[in-house]
Automatic annotation (TrEMBL), chain A:
Pfam families: Alg6_Alg8. The chain crosses the membrane at residues 7-27, 100-120, 127-144, 150-167, 174-197, 217-238, 250-270, 309-330, 337-354, 381-398, 404-426, 480-499. The lineage of its organism: Eukaryota, Viridiplantae, Streptophyta, Embryophyta, Tracheophyta. InterPro entries: Glyco_trans_ALG6/ALG8 (IPR004856). Pathway: Protein modification; protein glycosylation. One of its GO terms (cellular component) is endoplasmic reticulum membrane. This is Alpha-1,3-glucosyltransferase.
From TrEMBL, chain B:
Belongs to the ALG6/ALG8 glucosyltransferase family. One of its GO terms (molecular function) is dolichyl pyrophosphate Man9GlcNAc2 alpha-1,3-glucosyltransferase activity. This is Alpha-1,3-glucosyltransferase. Pathway: Protein modification; protein glycosylation. It is found in: Endoplasmic reticulum membrane. InterPro entries: Glyco_trans_ALG6/ALG8. Keywords: Endoplasmic reticulum, Glycosyltransferase, Membrane, Transferase, Transmembrane, Transmembrane helix. The chain crosses the membrane at residues 133-155, 167-183, 195-220, 250-270, 345-362, 369-387, 407-423, 444-463, 475-494. It is a multi-pass membrane protein. It is an enzyme of class 2 (transferase). GO terms for cellular component: endoplasmic reticulum membrane. PANTHER family: DOLICHYL GLYCOSYLTRANSFERASE (PTHR12413), DOLICHYL PYROPHOSPHATE MAN9GLCNAC2 ALPHA-1,3-GLUCOSYLTRANSFERASE (PTHR12413:SF1). Pfam families: Alg6_Alg8 (PF03155).
Length: 507, 513
């Protein structure tokens, strides 16, 4: 039976791989050239110049493990086509060789996701296990961001899931070690660090004075060793400041070019609304010169009425938002709840963080998939939040050719989710007996509430308005309107999800 | 995605790995699988099409676009006529009027969004981003609007009185048919329309509405003359059924009228003069192109290695020879259907007659394997092993064609996907009293075939053929596929007759009880 189940996970992964292969010729964002450039940097320059190179505008701004990973890939890239790893000749290289090579590295690196899901769902009962597999391996967001837009999120999320699986097994040291590794791959994962810190301190190190101290030292040295392996060479070269400044470019604005559907959307709109009303009432409100996306220039604020937001403000807000979950984790550190807490932390980071990409919504939708199968309410919540977060990724793939693909991915995902959750909450034994008696088949308990249903229906209207009606009536004027509409509408859903998760954690 | 339901007997059925995706019934499963099938189709459509960026003639994509250009700019009577504005030597329209109308409708759509892509003369070889995209979307929408509903109709009718198990598997087999996806959405054609209409006609036979059958099949014929591959099966089955009625003449007359009325409506612009009609007909039957083209795995092409048919006979005599051979090859299954028409036998008949046409008729193209393959798809639950092999060799016979179109990756990927779905849940086959597969020699032959085909895949991709025989590997692929197709044709003919004897004996037993 176990072999059979593993077989099914492999089946889903192989089918997903087929789709990924077919997506190879699709649209690629500038991230594709970013990663190609990193291959070239790490291959043709000595380590001491990696974080200084400015040949291309796409400079290396991920932590060192990712740079090592690119260095590893570049060994194969050179064999495939030496031009890929050429710092100058390779600029904006777009031959078949480089496209196939880079796309296939993403597909291969997804094996870590496969292993993460496998390890996480080893002991789960078959139906839930299948559901988790489908939700993670077939996540439309991952397919869109990694295999069309181009990034390595599946690879990194695989490591995160692996870490969660060790925590759930009670093997905290390895879990902590893996999380440190993830951090050294991509520092955006650091939002969950407070949760890890509190949980590990309480669950692993809080065991009497002697054992506790021994474990604290063990954990500390493991983390320090990981960070030393990553940053050691750069510290040795005295370049750590340069590395840090590359990794945290606070020069960028509060919002990313496409507004991520988070709290700040409301803040901006409130500001605009207030400025508009005040002006109508005869107050003298100046039009701000700075933009939200551009960054902080001197003292000028992009806001007309409301107070200026600095990176520190967002940092404090994220920390405040995570605090209830930290208190919970401290009071009663349960391995079963770790995935929920981590997902919650990433939700907070997404909602209140500085310069958040809409792609970051993957950080909480993937861990939430594990939580989704635990109860009926979780399933209902996940159904909503995964659709909203996937829809909020639509503006990433703006070219018409990928339009059917993104729509079909979302529809398929919703349909599979609906079928899966309905099956999970259908009384199978009752169903069989009823069938024999020839009576009515009992309906599944999985039903979406009225408000949620109309909200999801609203997505269709938003899509029609933003994609067809607005461009048709407004033409090229107000090009930001469709994006703003989508962000605002999705932000409502994500805010709801945040409040729901918070309530679930507190009760 | 394939699913399986509670197994047929309903007692103590273990809940299998797929039930959670298929528990809502056939239509819901169909919807879910069709979303996946559409996803695959739109992904494949991002790959190159036949003749992409190869002036001056380009390929099938340019042919279809050119027809849109002609139909939207000229009056219907000039569509098939050579003239100053319609140069028939440059991709002249050579499909029946329904294809022309379809081109007209699609052309109007293209003109609305991107007028340059269908403007007369100046649009030749038009390959803009939006133009290509719109063309691809016309195929996608034709598929979704014609093939998918027909397939749903078929599945609902065919699985009406059947246990629900394996229905989803069968749906996936029909909708994720790799040959059709590769030819329509990769190579670029509109087979989904004529095949969709044919599937609709078949479903109409199964649910007993013969007039609808005649209308749909006449439409299919008027879209692509290749639909005639199925004609013997339809004809013999309907004739056999009518002969069993109280008023055979009357019911035959009814069907005849249905055919003629549909035909007249579709062909109306060309029925005003005999000249017009003959002109269209001559366009549809390009006998001057010879008995075979390229390296198609049929009888004439394969045996031409030994017997130079083109030198031995003139084209008119070859015409009659090939006609005689085709009729002879499809005769057994026709006779069977005339004397004992049955739904199951009809499906075998479709497979037999289309295979006979593929192997023996005049001017067959590699892509024509789609017709026998479609019929085999509908029978996938009955002959799963043979269906699996046929898929492999049908795809393989188109391998050189698809390689020329730069569709190697979709070819391999769809192969993988098909294998995955096929093996996701193997239908249980009832072992018949006697089967080809029980011959040890047959199994050995099949394995040898498979091994050689694997080698040929690699050889074709890596090794340059000798200068003296530039098409050596194509010829080898053709011979291999042909020998499989012949074995397959024998097997299916045998099964059709054998099936009915089993059927009859079962009938007798029932009566005795």
């Amino acid at each position: 039976m176990d072999g059979d189940r593993r077989h099914l996970l492999l089946w889903f992964f192989a089918a997903a791989t087929a789709v990924k292969l077919l997506l190879i010729p699709s649209y690629r964002s500038t991230d594709f050239e970013v990663h190609r450039n990193w291959l070239a940097i790490t291959h043709s320059l000595p380590l001491s110049e990696w974080y200084f190179d400015e040949t291309s505008q796409w400079t290396l701004d991920y932590p060192p493990f990712f740079a090592y990973f690119e260095r590893f890939l570049s060994l194969f890239a050179r064999l495939v086509d030496p031009k890929i790893v050429d710092l100058r000749l390779g600029l904006d290289y777009s031959a078949d060789s480089v496209v196939y090579f880079q796309r296939i590295t993403v597909i291969f690196s997804d094996l870590s996701l496969l292993f993460g899901v496998y390890r996480l769902t080893r002991k789960v009962e078959p139906l839930r296990r299948n559901l988790i597999c489908v939700l993670v391996v077939w996540s439309p967001g991952l397919l869109m961001v990694d295999h069309v837009h181009f990034q390595y999120n599946g690879f990194l999320l695989g490591w995160l899931l692996l870490s969660v699986s060790f925590l759930q097994d009670g093997r905290d040291l390895i879990g902590g070690f893996l999380f440190a590794v993830v951090l050294c791959f991509k520092h955006l994962f650091a939002v969950a660090a407070p949760v890890y810190f509190v949980y590990l301190l309480r669950h692993y190190c809080w065991a009497g004075l002697a054992t506790g101290l021994r474990r604290l030292v063990a954990l500390g040295s493991v983390v320090v060793a990981v960070f030393a392996a990553a940053f050691g060479p750069f510290i040795y070269n005295g370049q750590i400041q340069q590395v840090i400044s590359r990794m945290f470019p606070f020069g960028r604005g509060l919002c990313h070019a496409y507004w991520a559907p988070n709290f700040w959307v409301f803040y901006i709109i409130l500001d605009k609304g207030l400025a508009f009303t005040l002006r109508k009432l005869g107050f003298d409100v100046q039009v701000p010169s700075a933009s939200f996306t551009g960054g902080l220039v001197g003292d000028s604020s992009p806001f007309a009425v409301l107070p200026q937001i600095t990176p520190l403000t967002t940092f404090v807000m994220v920390l405040l938002a995570i605090t209830p979950c930290l208190i919970k984790a401290w009071k009663k550190p349960q391995p079963g709840l770790v995935a929920r807490w981590i997902a919650y932390a990433y939700t907070c980071g997404f909602l209140f963080g500085w310069h958040v990409h809409e792609k970051a919504s993957l950080h909480f939708t993937i861990p939430l998939a594990i939580v989704a199968v635990q109860s009926l309410e979780d399933a209902k919540h996940y159904f909503l939040v995964s659709i909203v977060s996937c829809y909020s990724l639509f503006p990433l793939l703006y070219e018409p050719r990928e339009y059917p693909i993104k729509v079909l991915l979302l529809l398929l995902h919703s349909m599979v989710m609906w079928l899966g959750f309905s099956a999970q909450y259908t009384d199978v034994k009752g169903l069989k007996e009823k069938k024999k008696e020839g009576g009515e088949i009992k309906r599944s308990k999985f039903e979406i509430g009225c408000v949620e249903k109309s909200y999801l229906m609203g997505l269709v209207i938003v899509e029609i308005v933003s994609q067809f009606l607005l461009p048709y009536f407004l033409g090229d004027r107000y090009a930001f309107m469709p994006l703003m509409l989508i962000s605002t509408y999705c932000a409502v859903g994500i805010m709801y999800s945040w409040i729901w998760q918070l309530r679930k954690i507190l009760t | 995605m394939p699913k399986k339901n509670l197994s047929g007997d309903g007692t103590a059925a273990p809940i299998d790995a797929w039930w959670w995706l298929s528990h809502k019934g056939t239509t819901t499963s169909f919807l879910c699988i069709s979303l996946f099938a559409l996803l695959i189709r739109s992904a494949v459509s991002m790959f190159p099409y036949s003749g992409a960026g190869t002036p001056p003639k380009f390929g099938d994509f340019e042919a279809q676009r050119h027809w849109m250009e002609i139909t939207t700019n000229l009056p219907a009577t000039d569509w098939y006529r050579n003239g100053t504005q319609n140069d028939l030597t440059y991709w002249g329209l050579d499909y029946p009027p329904l294809t022309a109308y379809q081109s007209y409708i699609h052309g109007i759509l293209l003109r609305f969004f991107n007028p340059e892509s269908v403007s007369l003369f100046s649009s030749r070889g038009h390959e803009s981003y939006i133009g290509k995209l719109l063309m691809r979307w016309t195929v996608l929408s034709s598929d979704a609007l014609i093939f998918f509903p027909s397939a749903l109709f078929f599945v609902l009718v065919y699985h009406r009185n059947r246990a629900k198990s394996q229905v989803a598997w069968h749906i996936a087999m029909i909708l994720l048919n790799p040959c059709l996806i590769l030819i329509d959405h990769g190579h670029f054609q509109y087979n989904c329309i004529s095949l969709g209409l044919t599937v609709g006609a078949i479903a109409a036979v199964l649910c007993g509405s013969e007039v609808l059958t005649c209308v749909l099949f006449t439409l299919a014929l008027s879209h692509k003359q290749m639909s005639a591959y199925f004609a013997p099966a339809f004809f013999s089955h309907l004739l056999g059924k009518c002969l069993r009625r109280k008023n055979p003449i009357l019911s035959l007359l009814k069907l005849g009228i249905a055919v003629i009325v549909t035909f007249v409506i579709v062909w109306w612009p060309y029925l005003h003069s005999v000249d017009d009609f003959l002109m269209v007909l001559s366009r549809l039957a390009p006998f001057e192109r010879g008995i075979y083209e390229d390296y198609v795995a049929n009888f004439w092409c394969t045996t031409s290695i030994l017997i130079k048919w083109k030198k031995l006979f003139t084209t008119p005599s070859l015409k009659s020879i090939s006609l005689a051979a085709t009729v002879l090859a499809s005769l057994p299954s026709m006779v069977h259907q005339i004397f004992s028409p049955s739904n199951e036998g009809f499906l075998y008949g479709l497979l037999n007659s289309s295979m006979a046409f593929y192997l023996f008729s005049f001017q067959v193209h590699e892509k024509s394997i789609l017709m026998p393959f479609l019929a085999a798809t509908l029978l996938a639950l009955k002959i799963p092993d043979h269906f699996n092999h046929l898929t492999y060799y049908a795809l393989f016979s188109m391998f050189p064609l698809l390689c020329r179109d730069n569709l190697l990756l979709p070819y391999l990927t769809l192969h993988l996907l098909f294998t995955l779905i096929y093996h996701s849940q193997l239908p249980k086959t009832k072992a018949s009293s006697f089967s080809f597969t029980s011959f040890p020699g047959y199994v050995f032959l099949l394995r040898t075939h498979f091994f050689i085909s694997l080698v040929l895949h690699v050889v074709y991709l890596t090794i340059q053929p000798p200068q003296k025989y530039p098409f050596l590997f194509e010829a080898l692929i053709m011979i291999l596929c042909f020998s499989f197709f012949v074995m397959f044709a024998f097997y299916i003919n045998y099964t059709q007759w054998n099936f009915s004897s089993r059927f009859r004996s079962a009938d007798k037993e029932k009566k005795q009880i």
